[in-house]
Design brief:
29% helix, alpha+beta, 14 strands, two-stranded antiparallel ribbon
Length: 253
């Protein structure tokens, strides 16, 4: 594995510093993320995990293998196709994390586990509207995995579940659910300023991890709502999955 060296847009110092961790399989996309980060007006470090050779089989294992190397107070886990529209966005993100160092923060998330719960988003090109909020943040149920962060100590304490999230889906959802059960708040930032260039894919691995989450959290939650799907837990999941396959001609679930 070739790992990109850490990159600083400024001298990292004090409690404003943040590490951005990105596992990537497209060097061009990663270099564009790096350039976008360098346009920000806050100090940062960048840990790029090169997975173009498929060394890591999951995001959880990639992040866990580097989580102890983070030496800044704050950490953000980012997709390779995140871009910033405003030079002040990353600094504002870190400033808001400081207001409650025990909370998790992100750029999109549903307000509750209900099927039709609104998804709040600060992604500039998102289909979800976030303009009605007047505060700096809003509480949500879980976060989208494209860009989310917390205090580095919180991340090291929670870590990522490599058994349930053994692919490239739902690792932020599981991270948030365990954090919620441990008493941490989950929040989305108000205002626009970041773009996510892809919508992701729902493949066999997606539905396999959905099933695992359903079994894992059957006692704690009746339903799980994410930014891109909604499903019941426990015994309800089997009939739900069967009916979903019927609706889609057996192509999914």
């Amino acid at each position: 594995m070739l790992e990109q060296p850490k990159s600083n847009s400024a001298h990292v110092s004090g409690d404003n510093s943040v590490t951005v961790v990105c596992v990537y399989n497209d060097l061009h996309q990663f270099e564009q993320l790096k350039a976008s980060l360098e346009s920000q007006d806050v100090a940062f470090e960048l840990i790029g995990i090169d997975n173009s050779g498929a060394e890591y089989k999951s995001a959880a294992s990639a992040f866990n293998s580097h989580i102890d190397a983070i030496d800044t107070p704050w950490v953000i886990f980012s997709h390779q196709d995140i871009r910033f529209d405003s030079p002040g966005y990353l600094g504002r993100f870190v400033a808001l994390m400081k207001e409650d160092p025990s909370a998790l923060y992100g750029v999109a998330g549903p307000v509750s586990p209900a099927k039709r719960a609104p998804v709040l988003s600060s992604i500039s090109d998102s289909k979800y509207v976030y303009d009605s909020l007047k505060g700096k943040t809003a509480d949500v149920f879980v976060l989208d995995e494209c860009f989310f962060g917390c205090a580095a100590d919180v991340a090291r304490s929670l870590r990522f579940d490599e058994a349930i999230c053994d692919g490239w889906h739902f690792y932020a959802v599981d991270f948030c659910l365990r954090a919620r059960l441990a008493g941490h708040s989950i929040r989305v930032l108000d205002g626009k300023g970041v773009r996510h260039l892809s919508a992701g894919t729902k493949n066999a691995s997606f539905y396999d991890m959905e099933r695992k989450l359903s079994a894992r959290y059957a006692k704690e939650f009746r339903w799980i709502r994410t930014t891109c799907t909604w499903f019941p837990t426990g015994l309800l999941y089997g009939p739900f999955s069967f009916l979903r396959r019927l609706r889609h001609g057996g192509r999914i679930g």
